[in-house]
Amino acid sequence: MRWVFGEAYKNLRGSDVDLLTQLQRAKQAGVDLPRLFACCGYDDFILEQSRAFARQCSENEIPLKYVEGPGDHEWSYWDRMIREVLDWLPRTAS
Hints:
Rossmann fold; alpha+beta; flat
């Protein structure tokens, strides 16, 4: 994330562009949060951030299915994982 945002990265946590902050605010406002799905490869450069996000979602009771597996931050991993995402999605509207 630092290479994307540069020095501004240190100011992102808790800001309007911080995904976890947005989820916490929505939950506190009583918004019915959608179920979320996230996956990350063991060799992905954002693995630790993904694990931290999954842990924070769990601690804040934010619905998240988190999956890790062999792979990197690349299309071959995402192509494999899209099957799991599609199986996870509800088949009918609720």
